[in-house]
Amino acid sequence: MSIKTSTTGNLNKRGFTLVELLLVIVLIGVVLVLAVPSTRDVLTGDNLKKASRQFIGLERKLRADAVRDQIDYILCMNLPSSTYWVFASDMTPEKQDEIKKRPQHLPSDVVILDIAGENNKKQSADEARIKFGKNNVCSPAVIHLAHEEDKMTIVINPFLGVTDVYDKYVDIPVTVSKELSFR
Question: Which segments in the chain show pLDDT lower than 50?
């Protein structure tokens, strides 16, 4: 039995047509146009969101550390320079000054607009402090951040350990029980 092969009829295709190649290039282009903005945001990140995550993480850490170590921790924020540092209540003034000389910085171009503390007193200059007590109670605070034209509000609840975040500037009244002393 012999098998005959014909060279006419079925030709073996060993490539892609121009239409197939153009279709693939167009599909890749569409995917890139849709993916690049979200990928850019993930890679570069929104500085305002980074700053809010930084404060939320710090707030949770200080609450936990204060309860665990049974020491009050104080978060100090220098509003004009948008820097912050943390010290324990049992530190000497010399150690506190040493820590103050090496502050942490917020992500670039993020500024602290103001901080509303006890009795709704807004502070927009100098230094503000939030105390995290060893009894898991902290000073109430509303922190307003800005990056270019975007604004964000961070609300630190003194009792619940829950931090609220708003994607705009929100004036929220701060109320504190008279029995509590935070300073």
Answer: 178-183
Based on C-alpha coordinates, what's the Rg of the chain? 29
CATH of the domain at 90: 3.55.40.10
Cβ atoms 144, 115 nearer than 8 A: yes
pTM score, whole prediction: 0.67
Given the structure tokens 């570069």, which residue do they identify? 44
Tens digit of pLDDT for each residue in 25-75? Answer: 999 988 888 877 766 655 555 788 888 888 888 888 888 888 888 999 988
Smallest CA-to-CA distance from 118 within 74, 175, 162 is with 175
Query: What is 56-69 written as a DSSP string?
Result: HHHHHHHHHHHHHH
Cα gap 138→129, rounded to integer Å: 11
Does the residue 21 lie in any domain? no
Quick check: is 30 in a domain? no
